[in-house]
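COURSE: Structural Biology Practicum
ASSIGNMENT: Worksheet 4, Part C
STUDENT ID: 0417
INSTRUCTIONS: Below are two proteins. For each, the amino acid sequence is given first, followed by its structure token string. Answer the questions at the end about the second protein only.

PROTEIN I
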Amino acid sequence: MSGNVPRPLAQTISALSTAALASAVGQAVARALDRGALAFLAMVAALAVLVVVLSLAVPADSQFYLSSYFVSLWGKYLCFALLALSIDLIWGFCGILSLGHGAFFALGGYAMGMYLMRQIGTRGVYAHPILPDFMVFLNWPELPVYWYGFADFRYAAFMVLFVPGLLAFVFGWFAFRSRVTGVYLSIITQALTFALMLGFFRNNFGFGGNNGLTDFKDILGFNVQAPGTRAALFAASAVALMIGFIICRVVVSSKFGKVLVAIRDAEARTRFLGYRVEAYKTLVFTLSACMAGVAGALYVPQVGIINPSEFSPANSIEAVIWVAVGGRGTLTGAVIGAVLVNYAKTQFTSGILAPYWLFVLGGLFVAVTLLLPRGIVGTLQHWSQEWRQRGRNTPESERVREAAVRAAE
């Protein structure tokens, strides 16, 4: 028996399905967000509102005024925090130590940079209506096929997620099905980002060579250098960080997240129990890569350039250090570690101590590994749990002691 479903009935079914899906998502988010997570989200939201207000609503001669440089700098920190969050998701909860996550960050940045370059048009040095300046300089006859569509922001936003996600899915499909784990997987991810760096350095790749993409003018029709645009990009970075944090909390608090932890702690046992370990690892690795791509896309308009140096393996290793310093497997620790380390980097590299920054970074990593193996947030959480456990055990210990005294009497 067949027939067409009446339109009112179809609309009712669609509305009920949407409502059920929204209710399920809402319940999952509510279960995932405890008081600590809500406090973290409130802090990020308050920071976003405060920075926007102090940069736009406060007079420039006020001591509370925040310059565009400050806004862009801290917007960059938030992008790095989102990158660290993506690494913590796979390393802290699934045991996948990626030393090439900078590749996904850079790919998302290049996707956004290509959109920004297409917005320049005749305002470029060579005033070509279609070709970017570097293509005119290198005598490219026409725009490459893979640049088509980047004049549309929606297409660029899709590619920010699609390209890193596709690369991560293909890489994970082969690597995890081959059961490559541990240091061998870390080395392969490092080789991946190094190979991409070498490729993007070539002029015939069509991505600007060693100079990369720069001299951006507009984003969505707004001057990228304007204070309002800077503040909006900062707010967008804060919102992206909050959404990324919520996604991570939902993932790790779900049954899926429990399987990820099981894979981290005992992958062979998890596989023997019947779980398709490679599918879980591929999915979370792809999700992490998409988050890194979003971070890179928000990073580029705030710093004004994207070049192959962002693929450098050293950048990926440094991002891992952020997570280790803040606390692996804590999520909030990854964010705090990224902000603290990059703030310290800004301070050290702007004065006479600039040549010694790498020594400081290496020493920090060694010190955290030896003295705070759980990281800053992880150590604080451990101390808090011990204090609570000691508080619970104290009355019981006193009762046992009193009973022993009575028995002795």
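PROTEIN II
(use this one for the questions)
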Amino acid sequence: MSRTGPAPSTTAERAAIVGSGLAALAAYATLRRGGIASEEIVVFGTHCDPTEQWRQQAAAIRQQRMRSESDGHLAPADFPGLALRVAWRRRSVRPLLQTVSRGYHPRVDDFLVHAAAVRERSGFDASFRRRRITRVAAVDAGFELDGEGPFAHVFLATGHPGLAVPGALAGDPRVVHAYEPHEYASCVAIIGAGMAAATEWRNALAAGSEVVSVRRREPVRQPLNVPRPLFTRRGLAAYHRAPREERAATLRRLSTPSFPPDPEFDAVIAAAAAEGRYRVTAELNGAEQVIAATGFRRGFRHDELLAGLVERHRLEVHDGWLVLEGDSTVPALTDERRTLSIGGIAGQWAFPAADTIAGAKYAARRFLERVCRSR
């Protein structure tokens, strides 16, 4: 049973995770596999099911498959990957064959089955405490979280700070965000050019709608969220060595919308354009429905907890990014006795693809190293 109300930390609770999404589950599973007992960890969050928000957003855009590949799983060990896990469960070699050409992309339902298994095996629920943390304060013995603690080691995985909708469309009754439940009108304007937008173009066309793609930038066609080298040790080391402005420029480039190359998808769009059912424009028209496939608000300043942390402790920022060490820790608040790590989208300064499963595990593994080092 998860705890649902405030409770004082015990001397056994050395590590705290703030957040209850996929990054929090990845961090928790990593700590458990590293030998940290469930009694030593507390997870503060608003959702006892770590997949809840992600699952609802995936359902809203009718997502069938993940953009990630076989290694995009939540288990702390790299092996076995999702392809092997699914091949074993389904008694089929097809997922394994698809990995040869990097053509395996997990089905959403397979990923959710896997996430549920990680949640159960790790004992996540035993450490979960339903509470929204709004303040992190550094103290001599570590960190207090809304008065609870102190905890020597804290992993912040607060997720995306809300859905982004263009300000000019606020209050427009035609507008729905792509990640909110919706159907499709006969004429739909879809704002955006990334993965969610591309998925919505296809969904609306399949529903018989006329689609107007509203975008001012052309999308980059690439398999993963960021170029593959940034997932490698060599590529990441080069990124870490770069001067700050160069790193910021890299992160700005990575904000360009993108989605994977797919000849079948391209054929669907081309056929719809030939029929007069799909067109691209830079400005919004009088469409019956407007779907904002515009992702999430950008920047830590939209996150109450992180914004307060930066202001209270005068943490270093650069061009809107929270400056972190290469191991995802906050340098001014991390030393031999205590650790403050950032997982998820706010950790991009350390790992450009921080909002991916790989990014969550990158931060979690380095957090584990620091927790174990202080024993």
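ANSWER KEY EXCERPT:
Q1: The two ends are 28 Å apart (CA to CA).
Q2: Residues 1-11 have pLDDT under 50 and may be disordered.
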